[in-house]
Amino acid sequence: MSESQSPRDKNETAAITQGLRELFIKLDWRTYTMVLALIVIWITFAYTTHGVFLEARNFSNLMRQATITGVLAVGMLMVILPGHIDLSIGSIAGLTGALAAIAQALWGYGLIPALAIGIVTGLIIGLVQGALVAYANIPAFIVTLGGLLAWRGVVKGITKGNTIPIGLAEFKAIGQCYLMSKVGIGLAAVAVLAIIFLAWRRHQSKRRHGATLGATNLVVQILLPSALVIAFIYALNQYAGVPIPVVILIVVALLGAFLTQNTTFGRYLYAIGGNADAARLSGINIKRHVLAVFCIMGALAGLGGIIYTARVGSASPDAGRLLELDAIAACVIGGTSLMGGRGTVFGAILGAIFMASLDNGMSLRNYQDFTQDIVKGVILVAAVGLDMIGRKRG
Amino acid sequence: MLLEMREITKSFPGVRALDGVTFDLREGEIHALVGENGAGKSTLMKVLSGVYSASEHGGAIVIAGAVKKFSGIRDSEAAGVAIIFQELSLVPEMTVGENIFLGREPRRFGIVQWDALYKKAADLLKQLHLSIDPRTPIRQLGIGQQQLVEIAKALSQEARILVLDEPTAALTDTEVQTLMAILEQLRQRQVGMVYISHKLNEVFRISDRITVLRDGKTIDTVATQETSEAQVIAKMVGREVHQVFPPDTRQPKEVVFEVRGLTVADAYTTKKVVKQVSFTVKRGEVLGIAGLMGAGRSELLMAIFGAYQGRVTGDIFLEGKRLRINSPADAIGQGIGFVTEDRKRYGLVLEQTIVKNMTLAGLPKLSGRFVTNLDKETRLGGKAMKDLRVKANSLFTIVGTLSGGNQQKVVLAKWLLNNPKVLFLDEPTRGIDIGAKQEIYTQIDKLAQSGLAIVMVSSELPEVLGLADRVLVLREGRVTGEFTRHEATPEIVMARATGSF
Questions:
Q1: Does residue B215 lie in a domain region?
Q2: Alpha carbon B29 to chain centroid, angstroms
Q3: How close, in Å, is residue A145 to chain B by CA atoms?
Q4: Interface-testing mutation among A264, A287, A387, with chain B (most B C-beta atoms within 10 A)
């Protein structure tokens, strides 16, 4: 008995391992590496900032910082999955933010019309750029590089080089307010119920296929994600509550995850990026899908621009500069292949949090701007390098 | 001895492609390498050329007495090996001269000496008695001439070992004559040549020795003068051919699919690749389409399926109704399925799971209109996997890790799940082992028995003859013959395919 565990213990351990494995079945080694890397830099920053980094106030701040990159990264993922890229989203975000600001400041629009004008403008720009890529066969790199310049020019033109303040309090709230702790707790409760429901459904589906999911297994699949959700809300409530932009990001991420994982649309995006010829010969309309992802990206860039403007409290001619690079970096660091066909919303969000952590931690350490740029650039290239090495081995 | 390959082994996931193959080559000799598709000829030559590096295969390569360990094509080139693959490796936008000296341009102080380059190229071409201007862009040449340019390129590298992989597959008779004359010349110059071909008459005409490969093993090496075509074929096949194919018990019914006067033009050159082709297929019938490389077989199927880039004219009827097909989606919607050739390139998303590949062509029907239903997919995919006997751990195995035969079954399942009325098969058994082939043949027969109309293109003549109820022969885009199962013999079909009747 001393040299091996009792059979019952063994079964328990096996069930737990299997539960964990099934929970993470969609996550490959890249995601694990990613989570590990995130933990490592958090510990490093916590240590070098004498704990300030992980304080409630900073954690809340960090999450807010991650939201804009996160929202854009969800859109960018959908553009990259079928093998394209969008370099123009920083400029689009700048333009849509400026338009929304102008609409409420100069034209006297209310909140909803001001937001609508921003998001719809983003959508239309995405439509135009997507059409040029899909139907005029101009490479996305070129179309959106042109967009990067042109839309920035438009921003400078319409703002006449001035900063436009946001007067509407509700507008600013989008970027600056928090949910009351009670509402946060309510959200956590809803999330836990959803987790239980989804695990139950998985269990049912397994049973229909004749396999059994042990009770231990089921418990692991419920407990671990629930614990994470509760810890997250708790940490944010320790400061001022869940920031509104974080709520927006969660909604966008859930929609994005649903769209990519649970719809024919998402399945086709992976297929197009994985093998465009096979996708075409399987009857998939590639052009229409490419057009659609650019539209989604444009609308999300509009949303990102609005959050950005709301957070800063004004629209400036320079707003949103280099956001495209943060979004691309977030995707890539989160395991998205720039060749297309591989990547998840979960990874992209982790990537966005990773980028925000770098920004935040280095600012706390009073690193100068240029150092931050150098570090981010190096990390981006290193992430892709590691991925290439891993892929060769796999 | 110029070249010795000893005990070469090479495995792929699920297949042992080479199993202790021994092969040698003397100076000034033409040594033919024959065997069925999938016997391991191309793999052996990829080992010789360093495409598979020394660490990826077993056994030894000895050139002129020295053991060589290649880690890439550069190494084998340096050792005097030149290979002319079936797919030519010339840059279409560059001139003949540029292609010949690509990467080895004559330079002075790092600057390319164009006059010297074209002078040298012209000399080389003259040696080969070729009247091609070295300043002609490659894309303006026919396949045959391009092949000869490849040989000139090999000569410019002073290759001592020249491998020709199916060099005459796309050549006209006169071009074949030119090629043979050039090979004679090279023989005089003591170049050792490996000649891979399916065409035994050529092999017997030109080679000194013949080595037969089968299922990754060397079966025999014989002097050409001491053997006969029949003996070589027996060694290649090594079994009763007829057992491989299901017995002929099908009873084709009424015509369901018809093509009238189909003409297809290449999108770029506007050259007609299919000319006025008409045919019918009956319910429960397998129509075989035979022809050489470049005869327009794949283009014909692609055009019907709405997947060809160029201009397509002609009429297509299914169950008496005229179809309008502008895209693969139209074709699929009308009930046409298409197991395309080259499954890795056209058939599968290799990084994805079996089930996702199986349901790709009919996702809204097999899963959900917008929201996918993995339960339903798993149920349908699981059934298909069992019916077609796909060997894999589960439906969630990544397709890229399967053997060729199992990959092909996944492609087949993808189309069968759509319940097509007509099924096109383009090279359905290329590159898969004999066991899997047999299973695919049985499936094809079963499908036809159940009432499907099947059109099958294959380069393997025995396959067409063994499986098809009727055989259509294409040559240079035209139908040059149509035979029933009983009329079709290899000689007749080959004669129509090569135009030598």
A1: yes
A2: 26
A3: 28
A4: A264
Element (H, E) at B11: strand B3-12
B267 touches chain A (CB under 8 A): no
Q: Which range, of A15-19, A95-99, B104-108, B285-289, averages the lowest pLDDT?
A: A15-19
Q: Quick check: helix, strand or coil at residue A320? A: coil
Structure tokens given for B65: 């007495």
Measure the CA–CA gap between A68 and A86, rounded to whole angstroms.
Answer: 16
Please list every residue in chain B whose beta carbon sits closer than 8 Å to the beta carbon of residue A281. Answer: 305, 307, 328, 338, 340, 346-347
Reported pTM: 0.81
**For residue B52, what are the CA distances in angstroms to B46, B55, B71, B160?**
6, 8, 8, 20
The answer to whether B361 contacts chain A (CB < 8 Å) is yes
Of the candidates B352, B364, B378, which has its C-beta nearest A209's C-beta? B378
Which residue, B457, B462, B498, is CA-closest to B481? Answer: B498
- Which residue range(s) make up the domain with B428? 240-335+420-501
Identify whether the C-beta of residue A76 lies closer than 8 Å to the C-beta of residue A325.
Answer: no
Instruction: Name which residue leads in pLDDT, A266 or B155.
Output: A266
**Rounded CA gap, A358 and A367, in Å?**
11
Residue with the two structure tokens 């998001």: A119
- Chain A residue numbers with beta carbons less than 8 Å from the beta carbon of B424 are none
Q: Which residues contact B321 (CB under 8 A, 6 or more apart)?
A: none
Higher pLDDT, A253 or A225: A253
Report the alpha-carbon distance of residue B124 to residue B186 in Å, rounded. Answer: 13
Other residues' Cβ atoms within 10 Å of the Cβ of residue B38: 25
Q: Tokens standing for B241?
A: 């051919």
> Looking at B419, B446, B467, which one is the last position of a domain?
B419
Quick check: B373 contacting A, CB < 8 Å? no
Question: B457 pairs with which residues across the strands?
Answer: B289, B426
The reported pLDDT for the residue numbered A2 is 42
Structure ipTM: 0.85
In this structure, which amino acid lies at residue B205? R
Task: For domain A29-38+52-177+243-393, give the fold.
Answer: ABC transporter involved in vitamin B12 uptake, BtuC (1.10.3470)
Helices (H) and strands (E) in chain B — how many of each?
A: 18, 22
Residue B37: the pLDDT is 64
Tokens of A94: 């700048």
Other C-beta atoms closer than 10 Å to the C-beta of A391 total 11
B226 Cβ neighbours under 8 A, 6+ residues apart: none
CA angle A256-A262-A266, nearest 5°? 65
- B356 contacts A267? CB cut-off 8 A: yes
Contacts of A279 in chain B (CB under 8 A): 349, 360
- The minimal CB distance from B338 to the residues A209, A262, A281 is found for A281
Residues B356 and B494 in one domain: no
Of B478, B476, B458, give the one whose Cα is nearest residue B467. Answer: B458
* B139 and B282, same domain (yes or no): no
Q: What pLDDT, in 10s, does the model give residues B5-35?
A: 999 999 876 667 899 999 999 999 999 998 8
